[in-house]
What we know:
- This protein is mainly α.
- It has helices at residues 2-24, 31-56, 61-93, 128-138, 140-147, 156-183, 190-200, and strands at residues 98-102, 105-109.
Amino acid sequence: MTEEIFLAVTVSIDIYLAAAAFCNDGIRIPFVSAAVINLICSAILGISTKFSLIISNIAPPELFHDLSMAVLITIGILTILKSIARITARHIAERGELSLKLGKTPLAVKLYLDDTAADKDHSLILSAGEAVSLALASSFDCAAMGLSSGSADISPILAAVCTFVCGFAALFLGSVTGRKISSLNHDFSWTGGVMLIIFSFML
Length: 203
């Protein structure tokens, strides 16, 4: 059960950071929206883990293990690089907002990634529909970790349940500590990348 818990905690880091950002901007996450986020993330993790177990029984064990490690390490490194880019962009964004045009559609973006962009109507309440968008954007790590976990003999159902529980805990903690975390003016998403790399060696 240790692997399932570690897996759930790892994929819940982004959920925690998103909830902290929402809290800092005064955006409320209703219970229904929280349930939507956790249901989607846990379902994707469970399904991808089950699919991974099926593939692991077909593919050569050593090849599957090596590919799984490579995928997780790559995603971990990309996550760390994204965090570095976010920190750099945040410093640049302090000087003003850049206007970027994509074709004929103008896009005003700040050079750091903003989780609160999920609140598209700026109502300061994350609706269920907006929660779906946020969950799908956050579920990439869930799918990647699930698809790479076949060689670890992880239970898909237990992993999904642990992710659902950890996701609710992450949303609650993020909502409580959001302002304090944001006041530190640091990006902590790199921790998810580090944990992905650690998990790759647990396979």
